[in-house]
Amino acid sequence: MRYVISRLWSLCLVFVVSSFVVFSGMYLVPGSPENFLVQGRTVSPEVLASIRVQYSLDDPFLTRYWNWLTSAVQGDFGRSLTTRQDVSNLLAARLPTTLFLTLYAGVLVVVFGIGLGVIAGTREGVFEKIVVFGSNLGFAVPTFFAALLLMAVFGGALGWFPVTGSGSGFGGRLFHLTLPAVALSLPSLAVVARITRTSVREESGSDHVLMAVARGVPRRLVLWRHTVRNSLLPVTTVIGTHLAALLASAFVIEYAFTLDGIGALLVDAVHRQDFAVVQAIALILVVAFGLINLAVDLLYAVIDPRIRLGKAA
């Protein structure tokens, strides 16, 4: 419990510092909300003053930050400068697509990355060489190019999957987002498979594994209890990093497949200088990164109890 509490306190501190950076960073870019709203037109000082009052631009900086943070915690991210809609409503309409796409790609990374890595690490021969070659190829191919290739082959030539839209319902989303999820997961899947193979190989030659084999422990038990479990620490670190990166890089896939996710919304908001939307999406990404890192830390403690005992001490 002490280990969990310490990680939660660290996460809260990261959230506060990151939110301050996100909020203050918007004031470092050229332009301001009132200049964007007037679009270069000449307006009276009264109109300009009313705009500043509406967006609380005359308040002290720390007051503006505190009001924005407390509202964001309650789910209120303000109003979009371009559409005049609540940012929360814009995010609520687009966030499910991004979450489904990211989770779908994450499942592919975990299942196939670890599975292929374990098989390649325990078996020598043609399959291992195929996994090594495939991991090098998957890591080298850019995500956008992989998306175009999958669209041309499986969407255009074969016609197996749709190449536009996110579908509706669980089955429809699963069908429509298969190609985007595969394209998004390829680089991370390749890295996880390669790291898993290397880690399993190194753990297979460790003293406690060799001792278990010498004592006659069944091979399957040695593989899963001693080899695979102890090799998961570095793999967990890589998976946590890449799962967080999936959410950040999803905008490339959303743009290629014309999906209505927050990645495409972020690109559009940056082009239009929609400060409220950019701040909200940046804060969501920070929270997602923090929660994933927390899950990785807790998973460390499950895999190796010495970690939580050491932190507690």
Automatic annotation (TrEMBL):
<dbReference type="InterPro" id="IPR045621">
    <property type="entry name" value="BPD_transp_1_N"/>
</dbReference>
<dbReference type="Pfam" id="PF00528">
    <property type="entry name" value="BPD_transp_1"/>
</dbReference>
<keyword id="KW-1133">Transmembrane helix</keyword>
<keyword id="KW-0813">Transport</keyword>
<dbReference type="Pfam" id="PF19300">
    <property type="entry name" value="BPD_transp_1_N"/>
</dbReference>
<keyword id="KW-0812">Transmembrane</keyword>
<protein>
    <submittedName>
        <fullName>ABC transporter permease</fullName>
    </submittedName>
</protein>
<comment type="similarity">
    <text>Belongs to the binding-protein-dependent transport system permease family.</text>
</comment>
<dbReference type="InterPro" id="IPR035906">
    <property type="entry name" value="MetI-like_sf"/>
</dbReference>
<dbReference type="InterPro" id="IPR000515">
    <property type="entry name" value="MetI-like"/>
</dbReference>
<feature type="transmembrane region" description="Helical">
    <location>
        <begin position="232"/>
        <end position="257"/>
    </location>
</feature>
<dbReference type="GO" id="GO:0055085">
    <property type="term" value="P:transmembrane transport"/>
</dbReference>
<feature type="transmembrane region" description="Helical">
    <location>
        <begin position="131"/>
        <end position="154"/>
    </location>
</feature>
<keyword id="KW-0472">Membrane</keyword>
<feature type="transmembrane region" description="Helical">
    <location>
        <begin position="7"/>
        <end position="29"/>
    </location>
</feature>
<feature type="domain" description="ABC transmembrane type-1">
    <location>
        <begin position="95"/>
        <end position="296"/>
    </location>
</feature>
<feature type="transmembrane region" description="Helical">
    <location>
        <begin position="277"/>
        <end position="303"/>
    </location>
</feature>
<feature type="transmembrane region" description="Helical">
    <location>
        <begin position="174"/>
        <end position="193"/>
    </location>
</feature>
<feature type="transmembrane region" description="Helical">
    <location>
        <begin position="99"/>
        <end position="119"/>
    </location>
</feature>
<keyword id="KW-1003">Cell membrane</keyword>
<dbReference type="GO" id="GO:0005886">
    <property type="term" value="C:plasma membrane"/>
</dbReference>
